[in-house]
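The material for today's practical consists of a large collection of protein records. There is nothing in a record beyond a sequence line and a structure line. Backbone structure tokens are a discrete shorthand for how the chain folds in space. Nothing more is needed to start thinking about how sequence determines fold. As an example, a complete record with its sequence and its structure tokens follows.
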Amino acid sequence: MKNLVFIIIFIISFTSCKSSKVVKDKNTSTSRQENVQNDADNTLENHVAESETLDNSETSKSIAENIIDYAVQFEGVRYKWGGTTDRGMDCSGLVYESFRAYDITLPRISRDMAKKGEKIVLKDVLRGDLLFFKTGNRRNTINHVGLIVDIRDNDIKFIHATTNNGVIISGLNETYWLKAFFEARRIL
């Protein structure tokens, strides 16, 4: 009964008004005004699908930004194998804690994280995606992860924890990281 009342209210609210929404164009970084009109002819199914699509894209963007902001607060923290606090962090601990802060549970180890989400090509990466590396360990397995925080000047900037410098932001164009790069994955 509650669901039926909700559906009726939902239909009435969308058939009796117009709304407009500012949408940011990803390609030009400028905003444009996009009118979203809901006609009486549209079905409830179309309204729900459209609403869920808008909500999911806005939520994903917000979560990615929040995860990045959370991770960046650890910049400068010293490296500590197995660490997950501001007293010391390793690379997978940084990513694990940053996602966990927003109720997204990932495996604790970078090679297991690399089994989650969707593999993507570098030209399609976005802020909040993960980069995985093989840094010359004897088993030739993924042993390092970084979180993309920015894409600028034809370079992908990512935050990670290194044994020598702790939590830092590096560029994928740096020779060492470009050579060790293995794959990119989207979790959000």
Summary: Residues 44-72 form the longest helix (29 residues).
